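re: the backbone from monday

yeah here it is again, tokenized this time
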């Protein structure tokens, strides 16, 4: 408002940034500590008082302030610290543990102790109500029972309620009735899932609803505090001037996670999680627009982490994401966070440098902060001369009046010199910086390159306190040529608050085919939601004629789970657009091709949801330009030198306040800004633009090939570790994005890896553990059998368990990488995916009764998939269709294989890039060095071990025996499985690569540190497996259970021998069901095992699998089934000094006739405990027949179920560790 002040504020966890716009339009900025109770009650209001020249406690004059626009981490901090409101969850009976189980995957596959996020709700109440996916009511709720439950909760002090019922996103009647009762009962906060997030997926929607209930009261109290202060209401602890209250008070607005402002009274917990970071993205986009840049990568480097974001003319949002361990199903800015910041701790493990992921935080902070903290990235910059203490605020020491402590940093690096050897302190410091840079560059690749964007065409918009020190280096790592640093880059989130629009969003699930009928549905829903959103924005003082509404459709291919947001139509003051399915299809296909590299004409398009966004009322603020100065560049404030890229470089230091538009500074140089230091590296030039932006440009070509030598260097060792792993991860993203089947795209049952020229594993992204140590055998087979015939452009596939494979559903695609001459194979890349069906006697190719390999499906042995660039589709289709029991859906196999080829091609291109950057000799040498490093890490484990042995009895009466002999002098071990049972006439035979994978996994877990997973891990270990045994069968023995069941048993046997932990559930509980139309496969979790010093974790996948479980609502929407119950069985894990985690019970009712098969273990033999711990419980498999009769199934069994019948899986549980009597 004219004649009034506006305030744009970002209240962060450590600092609060305030940008004040005076009545004359000038801007001023200030930074305050967010928590300083001795000085003020609230930092935001204190900043406002300071700008207005008011004293502490003095009331803010009425009419002085026009608007206050804020972002806040109050909700985020409450979430991270688990300090929200006491909350209860009301959920459909049978799903009390749905949010705790989630999708059953563990976050770190090599962790002994599995740690899952703590639940936010305090109490769960199961409600007897049930609606099917089609809206049919199975069970109507008893409102009297619900009322009694609510009254009990209220009496027990619960103040917030989250209500989440199955399929309420489409059929909300039961939720509405329960919510009405909750509000009548007097709960302060009632969050209802169909209001909070009306989108399919019970788990994500449920988590979002709980977050809303948990955080909204906290947020409301903070909003009320700020509003009270702004209104001049006296606070009892403060003395205030008596000022009459003016009703014409300031408009208080808050930034939502979606990037729009909303009125304070509409600000909810679900909207607040990324409130501050969203302001940064808006600031990044708007300042980029002011600078004339359309394509931007946001780079926000703070103390503990770095946020990166992508912008190309419009904001990118995610409708499904995870924050602080909580799955969110609500629109949020797409921001990727990596644990690399100024406070990231520097590590040296004897062979390689590492940065983070741990941080020194604010207390003690980096070594230079004078609180005896560890060496960090900030300290490395001090040591290298890139941070000058004299140009840093004097805020350190007991009296907060001292400089950064450069001597302490120098002494600490000097001490490291003795530990590391031949590196001077500045070389050591300079060595850590590129590792941090590579971590941040890899994060940027995930939101750009991995999503199909050419990052070299973008500018890097740099902000955050530590960004300026690394901007040039990060840009160089990505091939970017331009960096933008705004004058408010240190406070860009607060600046973004002021430039943001007022926005209101709505979503509604649709789940219809994209056709003429969908046009009508989209328009009907879009118009209704648009009216609601428009009214919300208009209610905040924006004229309806100034509001634009964007209606978007979320479209995906049928049977997949990757929707893309596509414009449907807009509504403006000048007109109402029209939804046209042909235009939406065309836009979707263009976006899908750009993102994933293909389109699929064989699949139907589905409209998953409609989203609406009403926009208006943003600050119409344009930065003023100035003509270039004719004045010469001012003399440097000082001359210095800094150490970068291995050499000392002379540099000038300039103060930002002395630079005018038109001034240019060549690197090396330092520019000192009020809130950060900008390092201009050699080859870069800084120019002050007419709008006073600092624009950095690379003016000399970057010398890409680095003369680093082929000897192992601790800096380059870590960089190559990260590079090789990044390539494998990028391959995985490509495979997931381009895959056809649910198995690969959603359950993530795949792995991707990089190998050296002889087929030795170099890097395997942490995908499926059972694949990790066995894929190299597939590569070795292709190399051995085709060595002289391989040509550039060839690709091979195999699943042959007797020639490098594991079991038939796992098909491995291998691609050689040739040198420039096309004659020598220098590397390999490979991808393995579990295909939904490859034939066999049962759908899903997981028959429990197969006795020969032919009964398990199509046998693919060294098949040439691509011949010098030509995809051999006809020959492949003949192979898939020509077996004794052919594949049921060959097209699905073909499409998934094409996705694996695409993933491999991504790996080939990325390997070629690093050869260009570093030279072939260097890359080849470091492929060896990373294996040496892994081998040494395993040798250190062997140094702690002693000879041991163990035997493990399986349900089938077979035994796995192992003896581990450690040679302390050679630092080697022999793992001998002599004594293991002979090959069996069942399908529990495990090909030798499976046992090898289990050994590799176990010793990688025992390392208990972040090391690369590669062939070096097995170099000190000699594996002995008797021929024709259960672990090395001969053709034509069946093997399908060997990969999924026996692998788990081998893993437990090894951990038992090592005394590392008790048995886990020792099975994957492989459940398949289907008919001619539907096929489905899942593995089912249990509790993890206990070990010395830790309890197991409830309901999580362990050891050789980590596949995701399909969301209950998605399962019922896609398949004619009803999930009646899925819960954790409390205290079912083995007892001990340390208890195992609890197992689960899962009951699925069929709505059509289905064939059902189960492959499972520990239905007869209880999983063992260790060191006096008790064994776990047995698992059980049941069928409930129509007459109510319960029929027990064997551990490996199959049956047919009629409509109305149900299968029940009760998982076995792991063993306890230690004497239970010793537990306190």
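seq for it, each position gets an aa:
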């Amino acid at each position: 408002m004219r004649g009034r002040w506006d305030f744009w504020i970002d209240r962060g966890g450590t600092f609060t940034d305030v940008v004040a716009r005076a009545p004359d339009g000038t801007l001023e900025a200030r930074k305050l500590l967010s928590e300083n109770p001795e000085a003020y009650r609230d930092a935001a209001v204190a900043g406002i008082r300071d700008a207005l020249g008011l004293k502490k406690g003095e009331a803010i004059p009425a009419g002085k302030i026009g608007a206050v626009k804020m972002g806040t981490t109050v909700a985020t901090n409450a979430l991270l610290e688990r300090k929200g409101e006491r909350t209860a969850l009301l959920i459909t009976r049978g799903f009390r543990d749905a949010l705790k189980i989630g999708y059953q995957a563990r976050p770190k596959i090599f962790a002994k102790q599995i740690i899952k996020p703590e639940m936010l709700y305090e109490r769960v109440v199961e409600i007897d109500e049930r609606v099917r996916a089609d809206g049919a009511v199975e069970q109507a709720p008893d409102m009297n029972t619900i009322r009694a439950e609510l009254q009990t909760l209220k009496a027990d002090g619960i103040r917030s309620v989250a209500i989440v019922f199955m399929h309420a996103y489409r059929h909300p009647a039961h939720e509405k009735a329960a919510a009405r009762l909750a509000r009548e009962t007097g709960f302060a906060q009632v969050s209802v899932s169909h209001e909070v997030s009306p989108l399919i997926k019970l788990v994500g929607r449920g988590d979002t609803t709980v977050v809303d209930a948990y955080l909204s009261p906290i947020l409301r109290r903070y909003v009320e505090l700020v509003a009270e202060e702004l209104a001049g209401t006296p606070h009892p602890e403060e003395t205030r001037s008596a000022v009459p209250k003016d009703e014409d008070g300031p408009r208080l607005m808050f930034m939502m996670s979606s990037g729009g402002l909303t009125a304070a009274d509409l600000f909810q917990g679900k909207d607040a999680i990324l409130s501050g970071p969203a302001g940064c993205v808006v600031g990044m986009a708007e300042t980029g627009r002011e600078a004339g840049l359309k394509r931007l990568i946001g780079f926000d480097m703070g103390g503990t982490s770095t946020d990166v974001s992508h912008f190309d003319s419009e904001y990118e949002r995610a409708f499904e994401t995870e924050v602080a361990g909580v799955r969110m199903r609500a629109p949020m800015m797409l921001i990727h966070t990596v644990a690399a910041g100024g406070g990231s701790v520097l590590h040296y493990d004897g062979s390689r440098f590492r940065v983070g992921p741990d941080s020194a935080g604010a207390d003690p902070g980096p070594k230079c902060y004078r609180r005896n903290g560890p060496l960090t990235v900030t300290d490395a910059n001090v040591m290298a001369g890139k941070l000058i203490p004299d140009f840093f605020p004097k805020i350190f020491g007991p009296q907060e009046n001292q400089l950064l402590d450069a001597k302490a940093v120098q002494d600490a690096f000097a001490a490291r010199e003795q530990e590391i050897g031949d590196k001077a302190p500045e070389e050591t410091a300079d060595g850590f910086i590129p590792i941090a840079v590579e971590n941040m560059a890899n994060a940027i690749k995930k939101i750009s390159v991995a999503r199909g964007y050419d990052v070299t065409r973008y500018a890097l918009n740099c902000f955050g306190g530590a960004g300026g020190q690394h901007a040039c280096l990060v840009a160089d790592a990505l091939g970017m040529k331009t960096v933008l640093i705004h004058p408010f880059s240190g406070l860009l989130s607060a600046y973004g608050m002021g430039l943001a629009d007022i926005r209101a969003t709505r979503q509604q699930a649709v789940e219809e085919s994209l056709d003429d009928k969908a046009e009508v549905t989209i328009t009907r829903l879009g118009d209704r939601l648009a009216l609601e959103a428009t009214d919300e924005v208009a209610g905040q003082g924006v004229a309806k004629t100034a509001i634009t509404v964007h209606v978007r459709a979320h479209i995906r291919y049928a049977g997949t789970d990757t929707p893309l947001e596509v414009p449907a139509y807009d509504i403006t003051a000048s007109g109402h657009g029209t939804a046209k399915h042909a235009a939406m299809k065309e836009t979707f296909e263009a976006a899908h091709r750009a993102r994933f590299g293909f389109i699929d004409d064989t699949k139907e398009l589905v409209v998953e949801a409609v989203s609406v966004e009403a926009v208006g009322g943003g600050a119409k603020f344009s930065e003023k330009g100035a003509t270039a100065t004719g004045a010469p560049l001012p003399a440097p404030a000082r001359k210095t030198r800094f150490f970068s890229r291995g050499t000392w470089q002379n540099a000038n230091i300039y103060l930002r306040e002395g630079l005018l538009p038109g001034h240019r500074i060549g690197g090396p140089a330092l520019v000192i800004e009020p809130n950060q230091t900008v390092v201009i590296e050699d080859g870069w030039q800084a120019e002050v633009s007419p709008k006073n932006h600092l624009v950095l440009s690379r003016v000399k070509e970057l010398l890409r090939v680095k003369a680093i030598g082929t000897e192992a260097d601790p800096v380059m060792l870590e960089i190559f570790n990260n590079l090789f792993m990044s390539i494998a991860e990028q391959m995985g993203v490509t495979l997931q994005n381009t895959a056809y089947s649910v198995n690969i795209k959603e359950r993530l049952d795949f792995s991707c890896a990089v190998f050296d020229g002889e087929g030795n594993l170099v890097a395997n992204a942490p995908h499926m553990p059972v694949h990790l140590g066995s894929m190299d055998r597939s590569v070795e087979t292709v190399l051995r059998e085709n060595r002289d015939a391989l040509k550039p452009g060839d690709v091979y596939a195999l699943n042959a368990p007797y020639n490098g494979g594991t079991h038939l559903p796992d098909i491995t695609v291998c691609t050689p990488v040739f040198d420039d001459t096309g004659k020598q194979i220098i590397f390999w890349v490979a991808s393995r995916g579990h295909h939904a069906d490859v034939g066999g006697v049962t759908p899903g190719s997981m028959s429990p009764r197969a006795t020969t390999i032919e009964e398990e499906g199509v046998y693919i042995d060294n098949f040439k998939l691509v011949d010098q660039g030509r995809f051999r589709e006809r020959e492949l289709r003949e192979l898939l269709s020509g077996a004794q029991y052919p594949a049921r859906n060959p097209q699905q196999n073909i499409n998934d294989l094409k996705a694996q080829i695409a993933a491999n091609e991504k790996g080939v291109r990325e390997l070629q890039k690093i050869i260009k950057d570093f030279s072939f000799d260097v890359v080849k040498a470091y492929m060896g060095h990373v294996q040496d490093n892994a081998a040494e890490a395993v040798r250190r484990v062997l140094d702690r071990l002693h000879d041991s042995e163990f035997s493990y009895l399986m349900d089938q009466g077979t035994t796995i025996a192992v003896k581990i002999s450690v040679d302390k002098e050679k630092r080697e071990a022999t793992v001998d499985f002599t004594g293991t049972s002979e090959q069996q006439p069942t399908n529990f035979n495990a090909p030798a690569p499976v046992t090898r994978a289990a050994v590799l996994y176990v010793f990688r877990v025992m390392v208990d540190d972040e090391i690369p997973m590669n062939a070096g891990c097995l170099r000190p270990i000699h594996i002995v497996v008797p021929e024709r045994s259960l672990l090395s069968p001969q053709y034509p023995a069946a093997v399908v259970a060997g990969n999924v069941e026996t692998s788990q048993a081998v893993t437990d046997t090894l951990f038992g021998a090592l005394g590392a932990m008790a048995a886990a559930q020792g099975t994957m509980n492989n459940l398949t069901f289907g008919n001619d139309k539907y096929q489905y496969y899942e593995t089912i979790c249990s509790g993890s095992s206990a070990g010395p010093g830790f309890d197991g974790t409830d309901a999580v996948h362990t050891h050789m699998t980590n596949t995701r479980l399909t969301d209950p609502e998605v399962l019922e929407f896609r398949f004619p089934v009803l999930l009646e119950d899925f819960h954790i069985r409390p205290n079912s894990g083995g007892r001990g000094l340390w208890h195992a985690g609890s197992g689960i019970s899962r009951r699925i009712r069929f709505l059509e006739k289905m064939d059902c098969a189960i492959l499972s273990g520990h239905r007869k033999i209880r999983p063992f405990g260790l060191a006096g711990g008790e064994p776990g419980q047995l698992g059980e498999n049941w069928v409930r027949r129509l007459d109510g009769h319960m029929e027990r199934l064997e551990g490996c069994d199959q049956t047919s179920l009629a409509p109305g019948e149900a299968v029940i899986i009760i998982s076995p549980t792991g063993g306890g560790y230690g004497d239970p009597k010793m537990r306190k």
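The CA atoms of residues 212 and 270 lie 5 Å apart. Residues 234-246 have pLDDT under 50 and may be disordered.
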